[in-house]
Amino acid sequence: MRLDNRTRLVIVAVLPFLLLAVVLVLAKRIQHDERDDVVRLGDVPAPQAGSPDCAKLLGGLPERLGPFSRAKLADPAPMGVAAWRGPKGELVELHCGVPRPDELRRDATFQEVAAVQNLPAVKWLRVGEEAGRAEQTWVAVDRPVYVRLGYDPGVGTTAPVQGASEAIAKSLPVRDPDYVG
To answer: Residue 91 is inside which H or E element, if any?
Structure first.
């Protein structure tokens, strides 16, 4: 198959631009994928985040919480935090050393999760249920430090709470909740 001079000239003129466009699209996609792997967490008050208890818990956190994989944190990351991403980009955040929740009263409703055989269940309190709030936030209230777990409602409670409960039960001793009032 022979090409005339005009066709060759068009190919020679257009081909470099086409290759450049492909390279730029691929570079942008790689940059976008890398950026999506890094999680930037906002500061949450956590006066005990630097405690030995939080260090022990963070060292014992799993790489996976069900379908959620441990995420890289953007620098500078707040102290005492960890995050996991789901297959659709859902985010699960853990903050260790947060203040005692105002909702921690004797008449509060708790969710107890027995994640590890032969260890006491972890007692969770749902907090921040104001109208219009999409995120679910739970605080483990029966350990030497309070541990906050937050995620979008579409995530469901099973995998994040179960996985976090296992790490908490293995890392931190149980204690009676310090009720407000």
So the answer is: strand 91-98
